[in-house]
């Protein structure tokens, strides 16, 4: 390894993150403001509350971590929260390098992949957002590194359970992740016993770490809520007759029966109660969403495709919307025309990068389907981690967002995997020998 080059790229990447946070004005809006409000309440020892009431609408991981970071720093300034993101993002860079070195010894893959990730506009800009993206990507990267690390299993599996729990408490769909970890173990080693041990240990440790929060939810809301109560909300909002884009829409605009609408109005007290506090909506909307999907499989398929398109091929508009929303008019030296032109050019080129990464990264998944199928049906054939890690993890996220919700910012935790797939695809084209690069067992 050329550690001088790696150090320079790392320092430049961190400085760009700091520079963006310190020079680009941005304010929390929508869900991001909710995260900030909850973190502030935790800072003031008011518990995980919102508008004076207990809440579990979203995962508790990020606002809780942020709230305790605020306590550590002695203030709850938004800039302090952004500095927390810079720390997490910088640690993600280090973990990504460790992952690359475990997956391959080819410098022609390691250097380009690390450079792209360190300088990726999204990974720089989102440090400015009080949201889950940077934090959950750090946890996800830690989970991937633990999977490929050389740690003994008696350390690796419990640590995996802890970090998966952290990810699940931030994004609840990670509760299914121990199955994927065990699948990777089995497909890499063909050892069924080891895979079952992995599944058992990671699953039990994850459940143990999550148990206090689940118990708290039972105490507060009177029913079993492992992490959050918004899955029914998200399912129904994104899967109904009035949804035409596959993304979020206002709850009062979704198509439901009049009976369900009356129940919703009663729960929400005709608009007087925040839907984020209305935990009673979850089972009602979950049932509506399931019924609609089962009775409209064609429309569901159509919306699922639109969701994935919105995640991977809708450019980088989210940078401007979520990371630079207070930039215009803040002591800038440009005229309005120059500002718009510069901003549009920046978003356009950032979008081109995302499109390239999505195209080649997802192509990597498709190209690896055959070796994965071979690995499943041939006991003597084991795929390498360079195939398994990006392909299975990307497939997992694709399945989740196909069903629930898709928008540009949801690709954020996957960008480091897309970078790996893209660089390996380029290496295939350059060397003309795909098998030599990836399929060694």
TrEMBL record:
InterPro entries (UniProt xref): LipidA_mod_glycosyltrf_83
Biological process according to GO: lipopolysaccharide biosynthetic process
Principal place of residence: membrane
Membrane topology: Multi-pass membrane protein
Name by which UniProt lists this protein: Dolichyl-phosphate-mannose-protein mannosyltransferase
Keywords for the protein's UniProt record, in alphabetical order: Cell membrane, Glycosyltransferase, Membrane, Transferase, Transmembrane, Transmembrane helix
Keyword Transferase listed: yes
GO cellular component entries: plasma membrane
Subcellular localization: Cell membrane
Membrane-spanning segments: 6-24, 83-103, 134-155, 161-186, 195-215, 345-369, 381-404, 410-429
GO MF term list: pentosyltransferase activity
């Amino acid at each position: 390894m050329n550690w001088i080059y790696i150090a320079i790229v790392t320092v430049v990447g961190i400085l760009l993150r700091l520079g963006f946070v310190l020079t680009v004005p941005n304010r929390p809006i929508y869900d991001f403001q909710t995260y900030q409000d909850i973190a502030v309440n935790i800072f003031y020892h008011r518990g995980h509350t919102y508008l004076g009431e207990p809440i579990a609408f979203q995962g508790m991981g990020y606002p809780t971590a942020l709230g305790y970071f605020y306590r550590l720093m002695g203030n709850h300034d938004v800039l302090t929260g952004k500095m927390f993101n810079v720390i997490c993002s910088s640690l993600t860079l280090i973990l990504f390098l460790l992952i690359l070195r475990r997956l391959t010894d080819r410098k022609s893959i390691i250097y380009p992949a690390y450079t792209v990730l360190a300088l990726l506009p999204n990974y720089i800009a989102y440090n400015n957002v009080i949201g889950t993206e940077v934090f959950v990507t750090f946890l996800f990267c830690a989970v991937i590194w633990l999977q490929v690390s050389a740690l003994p299993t008696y350390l690796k599996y419990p640590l995996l359970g802890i970090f998966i729990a952290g990810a699940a408490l931030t994004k609840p769909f990670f509760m299914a992740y121990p199955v994927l970890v065990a699948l990777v173990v089995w497909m890499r080693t063909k050892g069924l016993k080891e895979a079952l041990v992995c599944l058992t240990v990671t699953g039990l440790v994850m459940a143990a770490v999550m148990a206090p929060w689940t118990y708290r939810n039972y105490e507060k809301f009177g029913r079993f809520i492992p992490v959050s109560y918004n899955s029914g909300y998200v399912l129904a909002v994104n899967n109904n007759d009035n949804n035409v884009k596959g993304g979020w829409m206002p709850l009062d605009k979704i198509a439901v029966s009049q009976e369900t609408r009356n129940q919703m109005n009663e729960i929400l007290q005709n608009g007087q109660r925040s839907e984020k506090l209305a935990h009673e909506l979850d089972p009602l909307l979950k049932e509506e969403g399931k019924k609609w999907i089962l009775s409209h499989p064609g429309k569901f398929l159509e919306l699922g495709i639109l969701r994935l398109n919105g995640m991977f091929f809708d450019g980088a508009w989210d940078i401007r919307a979520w990371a630079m929303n207070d930039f215009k008019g803040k002591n800038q030296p440009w005229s309005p025309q120059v500002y718009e032109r510069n901003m549009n050019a920046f978003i356009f080129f950032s979008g081109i990068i995302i499109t390239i990464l999505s195209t080649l990264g997802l192509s990597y998944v498709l190209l690896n389907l055959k070796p994965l199928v071979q690995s499943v049906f041939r006991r003597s054939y084991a795929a390498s981690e360079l195939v398994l890690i990006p392909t299975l993890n990307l497939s997992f996220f694709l399945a989740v967002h196909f069903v629930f919700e898709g928008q540009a910012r949801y690709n954020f935790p996957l960008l480091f995997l897309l970078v790996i797939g893209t660089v390996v695809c380029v290496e295939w084209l350059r060397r003309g020998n795909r098998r030599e690069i990836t399929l060694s067992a």
